[in-house]
Amino acid sequence: MEQKQCQILIVGAGITGLTIARELIHRGVGDIVILEKENALGLHASGRNSGVLHAGMYYTPDTLKAKYCVDGNRMMKEFCRKKKLTLHESGKVILATGPSEMEALYELKRRADLCGARAHIIDNKKLHELEPYAADSEEALHSPDTAVIKPVEVLRALAAELVESGKVTVHYGTTFKGLAGDNQVETPGGTIRFEKLINAAGAYADHIAHQFGLAKEYELLPFKGTYKQVARDRSFLVRSNIYPVPDLRTPFLGVHFTRSADGEILVGPTAMPAFGRENYGILSGFGRETFSILLRDSILLFTNPSFRQVARSEPRKYFKRFVFKEARRLLPELKPQDIVESEHVGVRPQLIHWPSKQLVMDFIVINEKNSLHILNPISPAFTTSLAFAIDMADQLLGK
Ligand SMILES: Cc1cc2nc3c(=O)[nH]c(=O)nc-3n(C[C@H](O)[C@H](O)[C@H](O)COP(=O)(O)OP(=O)(O)OC[C@H]3O[C@@H](n4cnc5c(N)ncnc54)[C@H](O)[C@@H]3O)c2cc1C
Fold first, then answer.
1. What is this structure's pTM?
2. Which of 117, 155, 225, 343 is 20 to 30 A from 47 (CA-CA)?
3. Ligand 1 atom 35: the closest Cα is on which residue?
4. What is the residue-averaged pLDDT of the chain?
5. Whether 73 contacts 54, CB under 8 Å
């Protein structure tokens, strides 16, 4: 590795790291190095998500998610149009499948209004004009601004723009191993000095923050998101995206249907406790940390009722018949044989505030003298990324 020093060192070439780098070069920063431990883009959350640009209906207005989602959705669409990337502006519906869910449906509408997101309560007739096979719902919520993109396409376009600028160097296959004194990191290729480090390491962001003596009260716990899909010849059952009313006490959205940019109808994802931060297969991704992850899961089982609920109900969704049971609530015409296996799988790193044993529901940013840390980059961090990057650049450089 030639370059031994830089102004800004970013750890992680996921959507968070790449969009912050892009915003910084737009502000005139000319000396950025990105370290990416993998040899390719999109091998973790940024390349393994549902590809949905959320419209901003789920979040209370006091959150960072709400602050960035509406603008992030608009900016990512503009980016895709400008770069001629895949963009399906398909919208989505959220169904209340029983009277008990109406209150939560209205809460989502209220949140959308407060956050400036477009969302309309629609009747059963309008619902069936949009989604002819959806379950009857006295009232549903329609989000016209939800869209679908191809995440890896976006990552590649961003990385190409950065490299073409001549102001950013991306070192693939290069792991941040630790700090080697003040303002200096250790990598397998030697040490690099920096003026400011940005920790955008996704599932490992807590580890890196801990090395700076920060965020000791937080730990990331992995949750696996597996998907099934609707058999191709039955994909006409879903026109755009059909979601249930979620359990608003957890950060997960429930099993839903997404018409991906490739035309597949994804069903999922689940949110089951995983055994490793990169535990994508049944056994792959186990490592030295597996035991301590299991220990932390067990402690939460006893101390946190929402976690207990997730840990009890989610693992069975690994099996088709349980996914079918959930999915058919939204789509009564679905037959068991319509649900087929999918290779799509991701892991969501979920931050836990350890003293209170609570799942953290929002992004957390720590900006201290020579480093900025992005903790808990959970969904919708792909959607919000371009708007979030503006604030991160403001924090680094001043407005
Ligand atoms: C199943 C699933 C579905 C989702 N669906 C959606 C959705 O539909 N819409 C949406 O907006 N969001 C969605 N999300 C969330 C979204 O994908 C993430 O919030 C976002 O991609 C996080 O991006 P990131 O750059 O922070 O992290 P990552 O994508 O994980 O990137 C971090 C990078 O850092 C690298 N790295 C880690 N440690 C080191 C190290 N020590 N040295 C060097 N490099 C390192 C990793 O290799 C990785 O490439 C979903 C997530 C999952 C898992």
1. 0.95
2. 117
3. 12
4. 93
5. yes
